[in-house]
Amino acid sequence: MTDLYTDGNALAGPLREIFAVDVTAATSQCASCGQAGPVATLRVYDHAPGLVARCPGCEEVVLRLVRGPSAAWLDMRGAVFLRVPL
Amino acid sequence: MARTALPGRLTWRVARLIEARDETPTARTLVLDVPGWPGHLAGQHVDVRLTADDGYTAQRSYSIAAPADGDRVELTVQRVPDGEVSPYLTEVFSKGDPVEMRGPVGGWFVWRPADTAPVLLVAGGSGIVPLMAMVRARRAAGSRVPFRLIYSVRTPSDVYYADELRRRARDDGGLDVTYAYTRAVPEGWREPPRRLGVAAVNTAGWPPDLEPACFVCGPTGFVEAVADILVALGHDPRRVRTERFGPTAGPAESPTASTAESPEANPASAAKRPTASPTEGPTAEPAPGPKEARP
């Protein structure tokens, strides 16, 4: 089933629409298992409405992003932090 | 939807086709003019959006194939059968036609000419696209950093940029190119078709002691298998950067160590990842893409 997902690189455009910096190069820590790594390495499932990014270590949801006609919904409850290189 | 144009905010631009080249019977390079293009790094990608007369839109990500050159942006798009976007871009889209584009995006899977570590590039099918941008950027910048490229394809006719790679392997000092054929080999090839395995990566890659920067791009199964091989060979996972196209159907195939269930790796780098958002309709494509199937 590995081909059912892509990776956090695919979040670059959708997140860049919201943030002024590239978030895919940022480090996130999974709230479930504690694994930290670049957002670009998250497993991204893009077949559902919106984008669901899961931890490559434990498969728990780290981030969800849904783009509606007039707003974007970003759910980051699965991330402890984002460390953004500046 | 009026949006305030803030500096740094990602916005859609209109790109026009100025030149197209066929790379294979199913892949086409598009040279686009994008007025005001801010430049990009090798490895970055763009999002492309098509809008139908009825307002329906479809969006895909495509890797940029060449280094920054003014307002010119080159993409190579793999046609995905039954796709929503790639058949249009590869068969209908003509000189002078407009398309919406935003980018560049992605700041992790990139190579900068100032980087000094040796580089290993491993491409599966259309995963060659962002890696080709790195090969071209190296030469354009006069970098002497040694590059090794391992390019896995189904058959010799699936090789993108075939003539240019042959020429560069000869002329670009410090660039080595190795091919792995998974279904059919050229005449007189040294071995039967086989998937990329540990031995091949070990032989054609760099020893881990040299601490090379590794870039792996292709269908998800291919990428994960190659990344596993590199780590097993002793490469630090932090130096192995990956970009997955997702599901696909195309010229690349999963390497031997792959656990992928889909052997049809995706060609589409181009078609990398279809990024569907609810307002943009379903993405029917199996996505690679570097993004329609994405890459």
Automatic annotation (TrEMBL), chain A:
Pfam families given in the database record: DUF6510
Record's protein name: Uncharacterized protein
Origin species: Phytohabitans aurantiacus
TrEMBL record, chain B:
Species of origin: Phytohabitans aurantiacus
Residue ranges annotated for the FAD-binding FR-type domain, each copy included: 10-111
Domain of life: Bacteria
Database matches in SUPFAM superfamilies: Ferredoxin reductase-like, C-terminal NADP-linked domain, Riboflavin synthase domain-like
Presence of keyword Endoplasmic reticulum: no
Protein name according to UniProt: Oxidoreductase
CDD domains: FNR_iron_sulfur_binding_3
Biased composition (Low complexity): 257-271
Keywords in alphabetical order: 2Fe-2S, Iron, Iron-sulfur, Metal-binding
Cofactor (UniProt): FAD
PANTHER family: NADH OXIDOREDUCTASE HCR, PROTEIN RFBI
Coiled coil: none
Location of region: Disordered: 241-295
Keyword match Iron: yes
Cross-referenced InterPro entries: Cbr1-like_FAD-bd_dom, FAD-bd_FR_type, FNR_nucleotide-bd, MRET, OxRdtase_FAD/NAD-bd, Riboflavin_synthase-like_b-brl
